[in-house]
Amino acid sequence: MVALIHPRAFDFVFAFVRGGDVQMKAIALADWLEAWLRFKTLCDVERGTVIFDIDDTLVDSREEGIQPVVNIYKLCQKLGFTCSLVTARAEGPENRKETVRMLHQNRIEDWDCLYMMPNAMRNRIKSQDDLRKYVSEYKYDARAKISAKRTILANIGDMWHDLVKYPLSDAHRQLCDVTPDECAIFFPASGHHEVAVKLHGNTG
Fold this sequence. Notes:
eight-stranded mixed β-sheet; single chain; alpha/beta
């Protein structure tokens, strides 16, 4: 059985998704997000978008679609919202072409924008701390650009640095000891007013 558990120590709206296996948690997260998006349609949100990470979010390690998340992608479009892709895959003509081919192969199509990480920033990554810092910085800046055009309704990723900026601010200090394999739903204290949906991440 999957349940939402709110840790009292957290200073912002936050709930762990506990119980069940990885697939059950992904389904529970998708069910919650579907309800949230349907609620947003009742709020007359104009120009709303949902941001998706790609690897281990829309597709797995074999580059096959993760169905509960792909279903949310398609639901967004059915409800009249756009989908924005923000990935840490390296920018470049060949890599972009291959990424687009892979997405189309999984019937992930018609996105509003596809942000890929500039090589100049990727080349600065020398450690795990660098990875969290530069990926989260790049993704935060991409969300800022997207939010200038559209209302961000949700942001979905498998790693904490997909969702919050590192180094962690005091507002997010409770996340310091939370492992990547945790799943959660929360509203970042210093985000763009979106709900963040954290899928199971790789601990290896």
